[in-house]
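pinned: reference chain
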Amino acid sequence: MSPPNDTTKSLITESDSESTPLLYNASGSGSSAPAYAYAPSQAPISNTTTPYSYPLYPGHVHIKRRVNLKESACRWLTNVFWGGFSLFVLSCMYIIVMHSLRGPLRYYEYPIPNDVDLDRCVSAWSGQSNNAGSFYPYSSSASFDFPLPSKTLLLFSKGGHSNGQLKVTHSSEVTEQVRVAVTVKYHKASVRDAAKVCLIERYKGESGVGIFAPSPQRHYYSAAELLFFDVELTLPLTELKSGGYIKGLSTDVNNFSQDLDSLSDVHFGDISLVGTNGKIQAEILMAETATLVNSNAGVEITALVARSARVSTSNGHISGGYGVSDSLDLHASNGSINVAVHVNGSDNKMPKTLVMHTSNGALHCVVNLDTAYEKPGAFHIEAQTSNAALNAQIASAPLDSVLTVEAKTSNHQAVLSLPSMYEGSFSVSTSNAPVTVERANPHEQDPACDSEPDEKCDSRSRMIERSTVVKRRSVAGAVYWDKRNADRGGATLMTSDGPATLYV
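pinned: its structure tokens
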């Protein structure tokens, strides 16, 4: 702004510069008025050519300017362009700098459960081996030896970009203590060192080893950030042979397979195996209670013996042999169930249950029912799938037992076989396919008789009664050795768009 001319200056009285500060003194010292003030005592000057008008209020000057619309529009567009370009450049520089600074110790979180405390972590890995031709070019190792915890032995593995395999075994070379050997395979040592491999504690009496790989706070990561852990958990066989008992084993591993050796010399009070994206398999496993939970992979158990057991998986199958004394629950989705089950109830007062549910997968099972001291028992069996075949065979049951069976599928055939000891009602139904009830063994012998039947056994024969009203796609009735037992048990077989066959 150009200085005012002489005419304009006549509107302004300038105070003494030596006695009046240039700015208003808020403290109250000196003059209480601003250095330059409007002088109302002088009359305004008219007919002036000055480009300035009177001040709107003391201390402010209003400027009248002619606006050039074309010049303003060009200036506005220029400011917008350079402002946007500057923002773009700054954004690119930020991304480049952040990418260059990105490392295993920046922008990460460790997925450590809230109830888990870290005790002692690996600070230096033993050596670095070159793995020529492998996806992971390097590997290092570490190990832990610690006493068997009084309650639960823990092994956890969490992390967004790690995977691996866990093997559980026992050895006479390991005495009195548990050994956990960890081998990590990697691309970069900095990524390896970012992982936390530590002794952990959860509650009093629960301890073990935890592996926590850092998870980047983003939805992508490079192959160089991947880790693979090879973990071997070795139980002290010498100590177990004397006591042969571990109160608890709990695993919770992400993207891990779990492989348990034949642990016939080890008996667990409670065993819980939890995993994702890796198969759970075991040879011989014995426990009071067993819980096996998996996702996106199968569960294969050669022989599991427990008082009660629960096995579940999603997008995977369940197979193997299972022996329980109280209950067994098998749940799968988008996978088959192919099992042999032995239920041997020691308490005849409570019904023993066997539940097998899946979807979009075949269900095949062979079931033997038994009780202690060959006494009658009560059993309830559910076998259910969808869009796949169902074949359930109840091979044996105690004499005079109460047995209820519910077998169901859809869009496929369904077959149910009942043992010769079974006495009770039955119901079979389907749609758009035949329904059949057949005698499995025309020459069957009364199960109440010995191997050499006497005259009393000759007087009994098994009867199959069908209801007087038989619908086109369903049939109901009863089967018994003694008519008084026609309603003792109940069996239901259902399907749709497939044949249904009941063997009694």
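why pinned: The chain has two domains: 116-301, 317-441+459-504. The mean pLDDT is 81.
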